[in-house]
Amino acid sequence: METSYRIQKMSEPALLKYYPLVSEAQKKGKKVYFLNIGQPDITTPEGFLKRVNSIDQKVLSYQAPEGITALREAACGYYSRLGLNYDTGDCLVTNGGSEALLFTFIGICNAGDEILTAEPLYSIYKEMAAATDVKLVGFKTYAEDGFALPDPSVIEAAITPRTRAILMTNPGNPTGKVFTKKEIEVMVELALKHHLYLISDEVYREFIYGDEGYQSPAQYDELADQFILVDSISKRYSACGARIGFILSKNQALMEQLKKLCQMRLAVSTLDQLGAVELLNLDQHFFDGILAEYTKRRKIVYDALQNIPGVICKEPMGAFYFMAKLPIKDASHFIEWMINDFDYLGETVLLSPANDFYLNPADGADEVRIAYVLNGADMLKGMTILKHGLEAYCMAFPKACK
Ligand SMILES: Cc1ncc(COP(=O)(O)O)c(C=O)c1O
What we know:
Its cofactor is pyridoxal 5'-phosphate. The chain has 2 domains: about 5-45 and about 285-400, Aspartate Aminotransferase, domain 1 (Alpha-Beta Complex), CATH 3.90.1150.10; about 45-280, Type I PLP-dependent aspartate aminotransferase-like (Major domain) (Aspartate Aminotransferase, domain 2, 3-Layer(aba) Sandwich). Strand 3 (about 115-120), helix 6 (about 125-130) and strand 4 form a beta-alpha-beta unit. The chain is of the alpha/beta class. It has 13 helices and 12 strands. Strands 2-8-7-6-5-3-4 form a 7-stranded mixed beta sheet, with helices on both faces. A 3-stranded antiparallel beta sheet has the order 9-12-11, covered by helices on one side. The chain has a two-stranded parallel sheet with strand order 1-10. Bound molecules: pyridoxal-5'-phosphate. Pyridoxal-5'-phosphate binds next to helix 5.
């Protein structure tokens, strides 16, 4: 029996393929530091579980398809603290940012329509595009200049009659890139000029290390009708397992259509929604301690990477990832070798190969993504292991090194 061409176009995220190798290595007693995935180790604020544990309901019934009012109110309160004026009618609760993105793709694109985005990109966008028969079109950004936006003419040249939207990830995964005000203006202007939606995936919004403050296309009233904000509590509150995300837009006609998708999947988990209310009601100062912790980790990794010969990496200003060029030719081979054949004092690291973050898998062959989601001491160990691993790899495979 045949399966659909849409599902056949989808593929398993590259980072999953290493897990069988990792469990083999672990069975042999090797300790593996997981620097490959954006799963924060920070404790989820206790309010979430307290609220869930105090639920006094005899029947866990379906909730409103668009999300419970208390959660949408709490979300609007959070945005108002950022200076954004959304009300509950502008807000849909989704099963994570993932469902928010999927609904957005379905809601704005017909089969064969195009969405334009910067590469390297969050790899799951590719799977969402395949599942919805959307064509993702990339414009390249580079490690050498900190993944700066290319000249607007480069982006404009990629716009076709099928382009429906520009999708920006700010701060970026995998790059950690935070768009400047000027870069945001470029995208806002392009969206206005070409009548495109501008989707801003801001799930890493609270992880910004510079002083520029919050900058978003959400602040441009003239774009309101074309702007879609995608959000999630996963990273911000270290609550990846709660599966709560949001779509926000002032475009009421669009929101009415998107609501049909919410109705189709009936509801989002009652427990997760109630717990999430507590998170979104947290004072903005809650993020101060978290940001301080990530700032420390980021410095440890950045300093260590600067001391590894041949590594190219500018200091990322957001999220919790480094995208680094290594002095090797095939990062996938190196990563596999680190798991199978290398250890430093009985320990090794698992990194993410960057080719998954490009539309063409031949791109990014010499790049890896490093997630700084472990405590400072472990990150330091991880970087020491990486340094020794690169030395040993290049001794073993000189032709595979630059
Ligand atoms: C850029 C980006 N957007 C969206 C998501 C989806 O997150 P979730 O579905 O957990 O809300 C992720 C998760 O890693 C992400 O990195």
